[in-house]
Sequence to fold (207 residues):
Amino acid sequence: MAKSSFTHASYYYGMPDMYMQMGYFPFPSQRASEAAASNVLVPYAMSMSMQCSYYLGQTEKLDMSSGTQGYTALVNPVRSNMQLYINDWYVSNFSDRPVEMQLWFGQASAVTGAKTSTHITSGFVQPSPCPASQGQIVYSSSGSSPLADGVIASTRILPPMTTISAEKNGRWILAPGTAMSFLFPQAERQAGQVLSAIGWWEQPLFR
Fold:
């Protein structure tokens, strides 16, 4: 005797599974599952980028020869009326020897005689461009003395032909008139090259 089609797995009390998938159940006590939460977590840096407040940029390659000190700095001008929140940074060593790097924080007025990088862009790329950043990336490879009016907070060793990086997620903040710098102190070394890149967002000092 042939089995009834109503006992087939694709039916439930004579009702096709497709109706159950549409949320229809044969008994009032059976409820469709609740709708999934529609909340989406947006990273704060992404939120700043959508508001045209996130920027990133890099220096040219710095030629590092014996007897010279080079540096890269993110400078917040004294009249910017902005606070700069460091999101991430990258430093690349293109030489075949290790290079010492010191992380310096101090007064923007101490960073003098440097070139200003033109390689800065908003993180939000659109036909109508975002306003230019208040923060400036500057660099120099002709210095012979360390920066004054600041403190060296950390020292790293850059391995040969390597890029090191760190994500700060806004934990480092530059107020107007201050700067953060990567120093490459004097050392007995053959000519080499280093390059730095920084990402940050900006928010008004008074809101």
Observations:
- Residues 135 and 141 are 20 Å apart (CA to CA).
- Helices lie at 17-21, 44-50.
- The chain has one domain: 57-204.
